[in-house]
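From the methods appendix. Each design record in this collection lists the tokenized structure first, followed by the designed amino acid sequence. Records were kept in a plain field format so they could be parsed without special tools. The example shown here is representative of the layout used throughout.

RECORD:
FOLD TOKENS (179 positions):
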């Protein structure tokens, strides 16, 4: 638990100053289509930096490849939190979500249904952003596999690790949790 708290404190400090550098943005431009780049630029700079960190983690795995499956994974890594653009979160709201997920995980899911308004707003955004992001990515012409990875990136239950889709999802989830 102490290690997880230390990790979250570092994550918070990084979010305060996160801003993608020009070299990272060049890598992103080489992976995303113009429509996907428009989505990427909708995200807060800290979310952009997080997407780049997730991409770097995914690419650093020993079996990372340049085939179409992995390209879809790379796109999903960059855009997995795009749904948060629909209802942007302030930094303190992100802290509330992290703390609530750590101490009241069952309640976060319960509070995360409905409309994103009132005191439940942050929880609805946290719970619904994968679906919103998947729709936004699909509307931008993103492949069905990348859209599905975005949609399921927070679904840690029943992750199939036998199929290529399941393996890619697991890689995305691990990279996201550790970035």
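DESIGN:
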């Amino acid at each position: 638990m102490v290690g997880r708290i230390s990790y979250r404190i570092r994550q918070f400090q990084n979010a305060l100053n996160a801003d993608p550098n020009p070299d990272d943005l060049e890598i992103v431009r080489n992976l995303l289509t113009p429509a996907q780049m428009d989505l990427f630029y909708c995200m807060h700079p800290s979310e952009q930096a997080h997407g780049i960190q997730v991409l770097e983690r995914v690419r650093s795995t020993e079996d990372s490849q340049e085939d179409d499956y992995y390209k879809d994974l790379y796109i999903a890594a960059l855009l997995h939190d795009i749904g948060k653009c629909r209802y942007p979160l302030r930094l303190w709201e992100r802290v509330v979500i992290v703390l609530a997920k750590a101490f009241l995980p069952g309640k976060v899911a319960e509070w995360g249904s409905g409309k994103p308004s009132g005191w439940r707003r942050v929880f609805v955004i946290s719970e619904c952003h994968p679906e919103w992001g998947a729709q936004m990515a699909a509307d931008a012409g993103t492949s069905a596999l990348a859209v599905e990875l975005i949609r399921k990136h927070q679904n840690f239950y029943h992750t199939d690790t036998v199929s290529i889709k399941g393996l890619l999802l697991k890689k995305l989830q691990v990279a996201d949790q550790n970035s």
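APPENDIX NOTE: The chain has a mean pLDDT of 87.
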